[in-house]
Amino acid sequence: MESIVVASVFSLLITLTGVYLTADYFTGQGVDRSVLFHLQAGFSGAGWREYLPAMAMATVGVVLAIWLPWLLCRHVLVVGSARSARHLVLVLLLPLLLAVHPTTLQVLELYGVALPLGIGSEQDDGASVAAGQAETAPLEQFFVTPGNLEAQGRPLKNLVFIYLESFERTYFDEALFPGLAPNLKALEKQSLHFTDIRSFEGAGFTIGGMVASQCGLPLISPGPNSMNGMDQFLPGVTCLGDLLANAGYRTAFLGGASLEFAGKGKFYHSHGFDSVEGLTELKATLPDPDYLSYWGLYDDTLFGHVTKRYETMAAGREPFALFALTLDTHHPNGHPSASCQGQYGDGSNPILNAVHCSDQLVAQFIQRIRRSPAFANTLLVVASDHVALRNTATDLLKQGERRNLLMLFDGAQELAGAHDVPASTFDTGPTVLHALGWPDMKLGLGRDLLASGARENFRLAVLNPRQQIRAWREPLDALWQFPSASGGVTVDAGSGHVAIDGREFLLPMLMHFDSEGEIETLQFEFDTRETLVDRLGEKDIGDLVGWVDDCERMKILDGSAPTGDYCAFFGKIGAKAVAVAALQEPFEVSAHHLQALAEAPVSERAGALRQRRLANYLQYGAADIATHRDAQAESGVRYPLTIRSFTGPGTASLLISKRDRMRLPRGINLVAIDHDARFTLLKTLDGCAELSDEVMVSAGDLALAGDAAAHALVVSDSAICTDRALTRHFPDFPLAELAEVGVRVPYVAYATANSPAWREWVGFAGSHLIVKLRASPAASLAGRATSDQ
C-alpha cells in the first residue's frame, strides 16, 4: 500500500509538471488567469493546428505520468534491505515537492489563498506591495457603473477601434528590435499616445483585454465552469458598447477568428453591438476560400473588410463605432499575410516577421482611414489587446519594459502628444470617451487618463493589484448575475433551453440553489473536459440541485430515473423527496416547490447511496457497482488483487495487482495468477459468438497451467447474448452460481492452489462487480525470502 501511495504522488507530480509546462508554453507565466478562463469558457474555435507540438508534448507527459510510477514501483520500491530507507526518503520528499510545486502555488494564489512565496502568475506591473502587506479595499470603493452619456451640442464623433493581437509597445524598443516597426513608431508621434499602459490580472488574454478596455474590470468567471451556456456575457456590467448604443451609435465588430472562441461573440452581442461578424460570417466572402491561417482570416483580408465597413457606415447619418481584432501576430509564431513585403532581418524569428508585416498593414490602414473625408469627424484608436504571451521573441521581450500600445488619432486634430501617466487597460474606455467628447468619465475600475489628477487615480498599483483583484473575486463573480428563480424554473427539452426569470439558458446544465430555493450558481459543460457529473461529485448530501441532462447520465445519480432523451432531477443529493422526470413536454418547478425541496429532510442512507454511485462513476465509469471486500478471502499470492467484472458496451473488465494489469475480452475468461500476482489468460468463452458444446476447461487444463497460485473466472461485458446454459462448458467445476449468469450479468469466481474450493460473486443484470482480495501472508513471506536470496 505504501508503494501505491508513493507512486500515486509521484504520478501527480509528473502530471502537475506537465500542466505547468503546457500552460507556460502558451502564457510564458505558467498557470495564470487566462488558463483558468479558457478551461472554463471552452476552446471551441481555437486554432488547434498551431499547437500540434504542444499537444504531442502533453501526450508524452501523460505516458510518462503512467510509465515512470510503474518503473518506480517495479524497480525502486522493491522488497529488500534498502526498502525502509527508500520509502522513508520518498514518503518525506514527494509530499514536500507536491506542496511547493509551482502549479500548486499558482492555482492556490489564483483562488485567493495567501502564500508566503510570492509567485506571480500574470503581468502585474504596478508598484506592487509584497503579498500580505497591503490592505485590500472593498470593490465599491473603486468600481463605478456610469449612467447614460449626456447629449452633446455638436455632431457625435465616430469611433474606429482596432485591437492588435499581442502587439505590445515593447516592439518599438530600438535597442531590442531595431527597425522592427518603423511605420507605426513614426505614426505614434502623430497621435495622442500613452507610454505606461500596464496589464493587470484578468486582462492578459484577448477576451480579458477586451473586457478590461471596454468595461474597466478584470475578467473573472465563476469556476470551475463553462460559461458558454449562459445567455449573456457579464450582464451586470456596463461597457463601452452599451454606452455608445444608448447614445445613438450604430455598433459593429469584425474579427478574423471564430466568434465562439472564449465567448467573444456573446460578449459583443451582450453589450450593445448591432452587427457581430467573425470567421464563419466573413469566410463566405473570400475570393480564395483556402487563404486562411490556423486561426482564421489574414489581416490583409480583414482590413479590406474593415475599410469597406467604415465607408458604408460613414455614408449613413447616425454616428457609429466600428471595432476590429487582428490575428497575424498571434502567438507563438504569427502568420504574416501574403501581401507583406520582405522579412525582418534574416527572417529567422517567425513572430518578428509577423510583427514586421503587421507594422506595414496597420500603417497602411491608418493612412487610408485618415485620407477619408469622413475622418474629420472620426476618432481612430489602435491598441494592444494584451501584451504578448509566449512566442519566439519572449526572451527579448523580457529584457524590455512590458507595456501595452495605445494610440488615438483624432480627425479633428484636437488631441495629440505623449502621456506617461501610469495606467492600466482598465483606463482605456474612459479615456476613449473623453476623446469622443465625454470627459471625466469613470467606467468600472477605469478612469479618464486625460482628466486632471489622472496620476492620483492610479490607485490599484499602490494597493497591490493582484492581491486586490483576487480579494474581489466574490463581487466580481456576482456581475455574471445568475437569475434567482423567484418565478420558478421551466425546462423545455424540445428547444434545448431552461427558462428562469425571463432568461433562457442552454442544456445540459446544473443549478445549485441556496437554502431558500434561490439559485447560487449555474454550471455548464460546453467545450470543456469537466462534466456536470464531475460537478455533482463535489456536492454535499444537503445541497439542493437542479440537473437537466441525458436520461442515461441521470441514472448515475438516481438508478430509478426514467428513460428518454432528457431528464430532470430537482432536490437535495441526500433527500428522499426529489422531483425526477423524463422531459416529453415542458417541465415546470415552481418557486413554492423549490422552497419545499429546500426544506426537505436529508436521509443519510439516500445521500450515501447517491454519493457512492457518483464516486463509482467518476472512478470506474459505472455507477451500479457492488464492491466485495471479504476479510476472509485471501488472494493466495504476495499482493492484494482487484478484479473488475463490468458489463455493457464501453466498459473494461480488469485484473489489477501491484505487478500486473490485464484487460479482459468479451465473454467468460479463465486467468491463471502466479505467486508474484502476474496474470496469464488461459482461455475465453465468447457466449455471444456461435459456439459448440465444447468444454471450456477441465481439471486437467488447470494442471497444465504450471505453478499457478490461483485461478480466476471473470465475465467481461457479457458471458452470453442468448439463453444458454454456461455450466455445460465447465463440467468439472463446482460453480453453483454460474447457472444464474445471464445476459450482461457480472460474475467472478476465484480459487487458490492451497484451497481449491471456488468462491463466487454474482451481480444483477446491467450492474458491475468489483472483488478485492487481500494478500496471503504465507505467500508474501515466501516471496520475501526468495527475493532476499
Written account of the structure:
With 789 residues, the protein is α+β, with helices and mostly antiparallel strands. It has 23 helices and 31 strands. An eight-stranded mixed sheet has the order 5-4-6-1-7-8-2-9, sandwiched between helices. Strands 17-16-18-19-20 form a five-stranded antiparallel sheet. Strand 23 (641-646) and strand 24 (654-656) form a beta hairpin. The protein is elongated, with a radius of gyration of 32 Å.
Biggest sheet: strand arrangement = 5-4-6-1-7-8-2-9
**N-C termini distance:** 24 Å
Anisotropy-based shape: elongated
Radius of gyration: 32 Å
Residue fraction in strands: 15-25%
Q: Please count the helical segments.
A: 23
Class from secondary-structure proportions: alpha+beta
Low-confidence stretches: 114-134, 781-789
The pLDDT mean sits at: 84
Helix content: 25-40%
**How does the major sheet shape up?**
8 strands, mixed
> How many runs of DSSP E, i.e. beta strands?
31
Question: Layout of SSEs?
Answer:
Layout (H helix, E strand, L loop, with lengths): L1 H26 L5 H9 L10 H25 L6 H17 L2 H9 L47 E7 L17 H7 L3 E3 L2 E2 L7 H10 L24 H7 L3 E6 L8 H7 L4 E3 L1 H5 L15 H16 L5 E6 L24 H21 L7 E7 L9 H4 L8 E5 L6 E3 L3 E2 L3 H9 L5 E2 L2 E2 L6 H4 L7 H7 L1 H6 L10 E4 L4 E4 L2 E4 L2 E5 L5 E5 L8 H5 L7 E7 H7 L8 E7 L6 E4 L4 E3 L1 H9 L4 H17 L4 E10 L6 E6 L7 E3 L4 E3 L3 E7 L5 E7 L13 H5 L6 E7 L30 E6 L6 E4 L5 E7 L2 H12 L1
Parallel strand pairs: 1-6, 1-7, 2-9, 3-10, 4-5, 4-6, 22-31
Antiparallel strand pairs: 2-8, 7-8, 11-12, 13-14, 13-21, 14-15, 16-17, 16-18, 18-19, 19-20, 23-24, 23-31, 24-25, 26-27, 26-28, 28-29, 29-30
